[in-house]
Amino acid sequence: MIHWLSGGGLSNDGTLIWAGESWAVVLVAAIAALALVLTYRRGGELRRVESLLWGLALGVLAWAMAEPQWAEETGREEPGHTVVLVDASRSMSVSDGLQRRSDNAEAIAGQVSEGATILSFGRTIESAATADDWKGGTDIGAALEAVADRYLGQQLASVVLVTDGIDRGGLRGAHAAGSMAVPELPGPLTIYQVGRTEGMVDQAIEDVRSGGFAFLRTPFHLEASVSGRSGERLELTLRREGRLVDTARVVLDDAGRGRVRFEVTPTEVGRFVWEVTLPVAANDGVPGNNRFPVVVRVVRDRTRVLQVSGSPSTDQKFLRLFLKEDPSVDLVSFFILRTHQDFGAGWYPDELSLIPFPYERLFTEQLSTFDVVVFQNFDFKPYFENGPNRLLGNIADFVRQGGAFVMIGGDRSFDLGEYAGTPIESILPVRLGLSGVTADERRFRPVLTENGGGHPVTRIAGSSADTERAWQGLPEQDGMNRNRGLADGSAALLEHPELTVDGRPMPVLAVREVGAGRSMALMSDASWRWAFSEAAKGRGNQSYLRFWKGALRWLVADPDDRRVVVQPSVENVLLGDEMQVSIRVRDAGFGPVAGAGVSGWVEAPDGKRTAIETQTDELGSISVPVKPTAEGAHRVRVSADGHGDAETVFSVTSRDPELAEITPDSQFLSGLAAAYGDRGLYVPVGSVRDPLRDPDATRRVTEARTINLASVPLVAILFGLAAGLAWWIRRRNGGR
């Protein structure tokens, strides 16, 4: 009865808490006190009893409004808890016969998990998830350590591990090395293996080694490592972006391993997707590992330069020496040439010291073997006896298809060399066709333009300001070939301080992108003088070297160094994952273009295209999210508002690194259980065993209880009794 009146048994270890508003309690108490004083002073004995009863009722009401609460904690001992760790990595999705490993794992967990906590794990542990919520990796050591941390200070009745043993963490490797250190667990460990090796078929390409890059026109090798059953004969195919390149066969050794080497000679610079594939058998356990794509970047080992000069000169000598001493340049140089007039002068060939100029072979058969062609004070007419426009047209086509062309000034260049109206003019960054004076022989110091301050060709110092100071300190030039200004799509990097054309300074150094190639025009023939400004001060000829090194790098630019550049955030992406395609747009002077409209597409192997429509930010860049839905090589192509276009490739695969190996590791699992001694048990596939349990393991369950003393029955009874008696006495005294 007393237990009920007090709202339940109250322990001596509890704490009284007041939860009500203090102002309400004070108000009720004040009213009660005032009423008590007034009624006590005005009445007789019964009136005083009545006032005391009303005061008691109001006091109980004040108590209730103060909301007193009794907070206490209680605890009890219960048997030890069981924790079940279920492997949820993607290797558990493999089918062994008619059933997935994950289904077997769920069945085992169901048998041992009554009243247990089930946790799934990959690289981390979390609450149990559905069988199809695959995690990206397996780290058994980390999972066991997480259990030890989570239940620190407790005793568990049992820890159960359900896995195929394909551990991607450090524990399995340490076991193989004989140095495995296992975490201390709060309970005995029972390991149930899932996954069979009998009857399992998995022909796989385990790896393809490429080195990541290759050199242009130089053979390189793609070496594929394959696995399967001992003695199997496998046929592999090599494709480049879907096009068949080669096939090869291999017989697997006694360990079920084999290697195949493909030799490839790239003919283009850029990124390309190469893919090695195996036919998929009907009973193959993991079809996704029968394809292995790699992205190989093809770069230039050496820049092949053809230098053609009409006559020996100091400028020709300096440039030839620079090109010869650069180990990254393969130079073919022609100067002091025999003209076709020499053949008609009556001299016998053995009376002439000059060798014949093989211009026909150079500019037809061999032109494509060069990266850069330099015409240095060269007039073509005395040499190109047969089809000059055809040969010059070959050079123009060579540039449009990705080559580079440089014309350097002199008395046989530009208009003085009669190049106006030829195919060469169509690729130059300056316009020709002057009438009258075609050269200016006054000495001058070129002026660096705004574009020149940041362009790779003329950036000969660290910053734009330092570059401008460097150019101001270089020696004057001896004169220049005049021109009619910039051609469309060109940029002036150096200008004449006085000469103008159409109201603008006349270009001295100009560059241009022509189709897939580039061209440069230097209207002076005295760049060699730039080698002496620093040499006179004992600092070598760095300005001259930086200028020509920068010019060569820009002229033979890779796709990643063009005005419009498109790059994937990753070159090999897993099917269904999101990636980014970044786009950068620069103007002719290589400055960022803000607000440039960009359009293009991402093309999947089946020909389906996803459109790209965007514009660049203030830095001339933008990133576009892409989520591929098909396997294979994807090509990205974009165009930017007249600034050019660009393309790149990336590979999409369903090949999961977690599935590179799918054979269960029973040796590791049995060794892991043995490391715990008599507190470890390994249960192989097909065996039925109860998990190890610690009978002495207990846990204390703590419960918090709060009793609202304002709502216990005793409070209501006291209030009703006091108020009722007070009312009854008042009625007996004739009150209302």
Topology (SSEs and partners):
Blueprint: H1 2-5, E1 15-18, H2 22-42, H3 45-65, E2 68-79, E3 81-87, E4 95-96, E5 99-100, H4 101-112, E6 117-121, E7 125-127, H5 140-150, E8 156-163, H6 170-177, E9 189-193, E10 204-209, E11 213-215, E12 220-227, E13 233-240, E14 243-251, E15 257-264, E16 270-277, E17 291-299, E18 303-309, H7 314-325, E19 329-334, H8 340-343, H9 359-362, E20 372-376, H10 388-400, E21 404-408, E22 439-440, E23 447-448, H11 450-454, H12 464-472, E24 480-481, E25 490-501, E26 504-514, E27 517-522, H13 542-555, E28 564-568, E29 572-574, E30 579-585, E31 597-603, E32 609-615, E33 621-626, E34 632-640, E35 645-653, H14 666-674, E36 680-683, E37 698-708, H15 713-732
Mind explaining what this structure looks like?
With 736 residues, this protein is α/β, with parallel strands linked by helices. The protein has 5 domains: 103 residues, no CATH class; 146 residues, von Willebrand factor, type A domain (Rossmann fold, 3-Layer(aba) Sandwich), CATH 3.40.50.410; 97 residues, Immunoglobulin-like (Sandwich); 255 residues, 3-Layer(aba) Sandwich (Rossmann fold), CATH 3.40.50.880; 94 residues, Macroglobulin (MG2) domain (Immunoglobulin-like), CATH 2.60.40. Strand 26 and strand 27 form a beta hairpin. The two termini are 36 Å apart. The relative contact order is 0.13. The N terminus is likely disordered.
